[in-house]
Amino acid sequence: MLLAQARTETVLTLRNGEQILLTVLIPVALLVAMSLMDVIPVPDPRVGSATARILALAVISSAFTGQAIALGFDRRYGVLKRLAATALPRWLLVAGRVVAALAVVAVQVAIIAVVALLLGWRLPSATGLLWAALLIVLGTLSFGALGVLLGGALRAEIVLALANIVWFALLLVGGVALGVDALPGWLATVVDALPSAALALALHDAVVEGTAPSPGHIAVLVVWGVAAGVLAMRTTKLS
Known about the structure:
mainly alpha
């Protein structure tokens, strides 16, 4: 039942043209631009640093923005209410979405990795790859909880607007396109506590340096994810 539900959610996501644009085309285009152009300051090795940031963006796109919008419109059209009336337990509906998000992120990571290798990215050590995989899973869970929190409480039209606004904000000043070091002091302090910056910086340690990420960055992801999950359980509506 879990696999069937997850497969359905994954196929629906991958068939959606807007989702493909958000989750694949835009991240790949930004990866190429950040790797080959000097418009945005990216530390050396440029391709490796850009890859780490784009992997973080891919997780945000799928787990947060995509999940929030999909959940908001599923509520609007009564999909969740109808599924809740079937034999599927509620925990399985949630678990199916989580597994689907992980599957979509896996596709994104594979595509981004291939493009990065073509651009000259050098694979990190086995330790770095293992940490990168763990961070991507943790980031997907944390941003997925934030996506459920947003998509499960507000009207679909509001979710659509807010999810895209937050996506652009995190891309521009959330520690993704611009690193925390490139931001003013007061803003850098705020951004450093955001899950987007924590994920990007942690992935930089794993993907570029091949080392374990800072415990502080992992803690930021865990705290945001747990807090969002607790709030989502109290605020998520079926309609």
